[in-house]
Amino acid sequence: MSQNPPILRPDLARPLVPDTRRPGQPTIGMVSLGCPKALVDSERILTRLRAEGYAISPDYQGADAVIVNTCGFLDSARAESLDAIGEALSANGRVIVTGCLGAEPEYITGAHPKVLAVTGPHQYEAVLDAVHGAVPPAPDPFIDLLPASGIRLTPRHFSYLKISEGCNHACRFCIIPDMRGRLVSRPAHAVVREAEKLVAAGVKELLVISQDTSAYGVDLRHATDRGHRAHITDLARDLGSLGAWARLHYVYPYPHVRDLIPLMAEGLVLPYLDIPFQHAHPDTLLRMARPAAAAKTLDEIAAWRATCPDLTLRSTFIVGYPGETEAEFQTLLDWLDEAQLDRVGCFRYENVKGARSNDLPDHVPEEVKEERWQRFMEKAQAISEAKLAAKVGRRLEVIVDEVDEDGATCRTKADAPEIDGNLFIDEGFEGLAPGDIVTVEVDEAGEYDLWGRLAG
Asked: Which terms are listed as keywords in the entry (predicted)?
């Protein structure tokens, strides 16, 4: 039984639609790299193409052209994107590039001059124009039917719900605002309408994403339109009323975040916060151009947990940031000890083309970054192991992601797809199907995963 089902990986996603191509129908393939926000862009592009009469191919050979939706955030992601473009060119030959790396067309065409077109992030019309030029549409309105929920690249039972584009922060290590622009929030009524359609189509879990979820609606001055206010607290309440799990990602710890916690305690939205703290030492945070009140954050965390004891906190951190001293890194370890975060990811700092952090003095040697990363992950793993061990004997609600001959792969409310752990059921699972929500009794725990059996 796979502990990380490939079907859940956004960077390996393929359209989960039946192959119903009619003779002569123009066909497009899609490779979607990077984060869930890019995955939503891919879904929108494919939905538009499908509405115009294009079929969607699950492989290179069956496509008249291939769209590669790229990631350009880190140098390693840029290299992966170039590799994917090269693979598509080799296997198909007709490639259109879009996404974050598309903001640098000369960089792409310098490596792959044979690509048909390059467009930037969320430039849907430009992508469609490029597809029309490469493979003219030939719709048949009597045959080409589009599902009401559109084309999705995730399993049927969960879906990403993007509520805004861009970001107003100016973190020195990040170039997202340069690639995707400043914050642009979707109207709340449009988000809720999309969520309603998804739930009606069978989605059991809505994964709310943006670059800065807690800033949602700031650019709209939190306006109310058609009965829905553009504010994250109001939106969370609206989404929580639809009967599906609602999970919030990329939430900055603004003061108003505390207003979300009672909604979690009530069970309206999942008791899960994905907050990118990045570091804990005030000097490091200042060099990152991020809020530098780590001690105050500990007080906030304590208050959140007092209101909602089952709250799961996930975060990501950067070690080896320019100028990070051993004392600053030790502060981060001590902070992690006190914060006792449930789910933690960590990145070794790397330069990103165009980021202001590249010009900072005192870059940390690679071997020191690696040693600090190892120490950080050892501590995070020990915390995770202890927290999961405390769940043995408890009854938890889980959602089933995959069932094979070995068992069922599930997730608890504390686990987001792909980035967190799993709960495995290896007995009495035969009647389960993806999307089922069932109660299990936990009988074993590992470092990141749980095992359990269906509760009687």
From this structure: 4Fe-4S, Cytoplasm, Iron, Iron-sulfur, Metal-binding, Ribonucleoprotein, Ribosomal protein, S-adenosyl-L-methionine, Transferase
